[in-house]
Amino acid sequence: MEPFHYLLVLIACLVITAPLEWVIGARVYRRPRRLALTLLIAMTPFVVWDLVGIARGHWDFSPRYTLGLDLGGVLPLEELLFFVVIPICALLTHQAVLRLGARAWPRGRLAREARELGATRPSTAALDQEVGGA
Amino acid sequence: MPEYTLLTLVAIVVVVVLDLAVVRTRLLATLGFWLALAIMWGFQIPVDGWLTRLDAAIVRYDEQHFSGVRIFLDSPIEDFGFGFAMILATLMVWTVLGRREPMTERSTTT
């Protein structure tokens, strides 16, 4: 199992955060185009940073705990997946916080942020209230 | 200053300036961001620890290229700055891309 150590922790991250999408209703996986673009734009500098770190000898990866599929001979596949998995977890967490906050306190600060950041659909109860009250 | 330390500080400054002054997503001024960050940092302790714990390190850091300060499960303290920058960058880009999504229902109902 040792070669799977890195891959398994990434899978665990995805499994643990999955209910944020499918139970709490964060809409991250259901916006695949926006998600893909976000990952591409936001993570490119960090992958470059990672490669610089490897090249400069800041860190390296244990062959014992990785699969041995090193992209370009330097970047373990798991390390690239890290830059897919962790941002997904961050987006799910943020969206879930906004949605749960908006649900618990419909007139609260998180509800306002959820509307401003588009975490809740414009047709949700909060907006109905807003429009109805106007 | 060790290079990883320096790069981490630069990354933090860059994402903060982008959020507050350039892209003006102003996530740093929202409660939701800080709550999400606190949760993410909480989970970073075991996850990053799994990668860095010295008795079975997956990622191996050269002591001379970071501050030498390891916290929780042997994680270089810089990792938490790396995480902060990564999380803020992700939420920032996601938010900017969302601006372009049409808010049709909203603009037509009024």
Question: What would a concise description of this structure say?
Answer:
The complex is a heterodimer of chains A (134) and B (110). Chain A is mainly α.
General description of the model:
- The complex is a heterodimer of chains A (134) and B (110).
- Chain A has 134 residues and is mainly alpha-helical.
- Chain A has one domain.
- Helix content of chain A is 65%, strand content 5%.
- Chain A is built from 5 helices and 3 strands; from the N terminus they run ααβββααα.
- Chain A has helices at 5-22, 32-55, 77-104, 109-116, 125-133, and strands at 59-61, 70-71, 75-76.
- Chain A has a two-stranded antiparallel sheet with strand order 2-3.
- In chain A, helix 3 packs across helix 4.
- Chain A starts with a helix and ends with a helix.
- Residues 130-134 of chain A have low confidence and may be disordered.
- By secondary structure, chain B is mainly alpha-helical.
- Chain B has one domain (3-95).
- Chain B has 4 helices and 3 strands.
- Chain B has helices at 3-22, 31-52, 78-99, 104-109; strands at 59-61, 70-71, 75-76.
- A two-stranded antiparallel ribbon of chain B has the order 2-3.
- The longest helix of chain B is centred in the middle third of the chain and has 22 residues, at 31-52.
- Chain B is globular, with a radius of gyration of 18 Å.
- The N and C termini of chain B lie far apart (57 Å).
- Strand 1 (59-61) of chain A pairs antiparallel with strand 1 of chain B.
